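JOB MANIFEST
job_type = single_chain_structure
chain_count = 1
residues = 336
[input]
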Amino acid sequence: FPYPAPQSNEPTKTLKSLINIRKDSFRLIKESRCTADDETEETPNNLYNMEFTFDCEAKVGITIYYFASEDIANGKISYIPKDSSHKSETFYYKRGANQQFNQPAYTIDPSKFNENEFNYDPTRDLIPLVIQCTVSESGDEYAGHSHVLLATFEKTSDGTYNVKPLKQKQMVDGVCYLLQEIYGIENKNALESNKLLEDDFPDDNGSECVICMCDLRDTLILPCRHLCLCSGCADSLRYQSSCCPICRAPFRALLQIRALRKKSSSVPSPDTDDNWVSQENVPPGYEAIPLGEALNGPQALPPPVLSLAAEGGTGTTRSSDRNDYANEGRTRRGRR
């Protein structure tokens, strides 16, 4: 950023990401031990376990490095710690979504490191904390394919330690890509327990389009990367305005994002108006689903609305039709 002007004949390529670390789930957990009374208590030292959630579509190996330098050669990305002891063993996981990395036997003591080195400087070679997930399956198709999370340690006022994610990178087909944040696509379930950051926009917390306030957002504004529009409002905005409705920065392009899943008879498709998603141009065997459902899982169906008995008669008011009134009753819908 700023992005170079695109060429009219510039080729595009679809990348398949086999690994994803959910950086918002990355955290340190103070090591605990069981007492004689089967109660759990924290140990008096500064030992911590690492925990995070990840998804992978192939068998992967996860390795953790401390204060390491980065090297890209022969289509692969590797990390070399300044001390040979600043590297974990490689932990292997099978293919699966929503997996939890948690190795109770593997602990780290951040107090043994120099706190001055916690401040990450892009101009320096050393990265305080690196988590690298690499596809470990044999074959040349995905050779060198890896996902990297760069982070650092933070010491709090009470003497404990936290981790702060910095960047994420993806190595695909011998090319290293720096992953950019999309504002407004965060997991809403995870955000419920966290306060908004000071630089977050308070109007960007919902899942509905910020213009029509009814359809689900699915269009990204570039280069500011705010996901705040539905496809219908994006088409109108293209000819009526040149600024993002969230940050008011001029935009250069609009990008629609769609989430697809394989059709399955065991997973019912939502048919409510609130969850309706266009199925146009969807490949056979797949169906488009809301982005919120792709991130947070299927939403619980609302309870059925009971019929209301009308006063002074035998008619009922049915909520399924907004224009259906009881013929013999005096019940009517209140106006907003």
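[summary]
Residues 190-204, 307-336 have pLDDT under 50 and may be disordered.
The helical segments are 188-191, 231-240, 291-296.
exit_status = 0
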